[in-house]
């Protein structure tokens, strides 16, 4: 049984890069704006499925868009892998909006469902205007 539920918002197909090394397959996917705990990876036979949903109702916007060219999820993508992999021995990391899944190559595929855990954050900011009207210098 899959861990992916039905999404009611327009699901975006996410771009992926797939790399092959001697003993492993690496899949890198762009997932901007997600939290690790909202990213799910499923390996089933020769298929790898990545799904991610927005962080919750706090992400709903009340502003009126002047221009909207991207949204932060939900995302979903299933790719066919070129070789059998061991999903139970997979490593997965999510940092700076990029998910990387590393899968050992094996003789027969081993399925798995991977759930990301949040291990830290990286933030940066520059504050020059704190709610006051800007004044010319």
Topology at a glance:
Layout: E1 12-13, E2 16-20, E3 24-30, E4 39-44, E5 47-52, E6 75-80, E7 91-95, E8 98-104, E9 112-115
Parallel strand pairs: 1-6
Antiparallel strand pairs: 2-3, 3-8, 4-5, 4-9, 5-6, 7-8
Describe the structure.
With 137 residues, this protein is an all-beta fold. It has one domain: Immunoglobulin-like (Sandwich). 0% of the residues lie in helices and 35% in strands. It has no helices and nine strands. It has strands spanning 12-13, 16-20, 24-30, 39-44, 47-52, 75-80, 91-95, 98-104, 112-115. The strands form two sheets. Strands 1-6-5-4-9 form a five-stranded mixed beta sheet, with no helix packed on it. A four-stranded antiparallel beta sheet has the order 2-3-8-7, with no helix packed on it. It is elongated and about 65 Å long.
Features:
mainly beta, four-stranded antiparallel β-sheet, Immunoglobulin-like, 0% helix, five-stranded mixed β-sheet, 137 residues
């Amino acid at each position: 049984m899959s861990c992916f539920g039905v999404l009611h918002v327009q699901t975006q197909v996410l771009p992926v890069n797939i790399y092959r090394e001697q003993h492993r397959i690496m899949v890198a996917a762009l997932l901007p704006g997600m939290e690790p705990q909202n990213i799910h990876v499923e390996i089933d036979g020769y298929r790898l499925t990545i799904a991610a949903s927005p962080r919750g109702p706090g992400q709903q916007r009340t502003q009126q868009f002047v221009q909207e060219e991207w949204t932060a999820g939900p995302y979903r993508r299933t790719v066919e892998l070129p070789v059998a992999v061991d999903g139970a021995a997979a490593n997965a990391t999510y940092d700076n909006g990029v998910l990387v899944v590393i899968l050992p190559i094996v003789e027969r595929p081993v399925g798995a469902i991977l759930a990301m855990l949040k291990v830290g954050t990286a933030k940066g900011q520059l504050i020059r205007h704190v709610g006051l009207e800007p004044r010319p210098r």
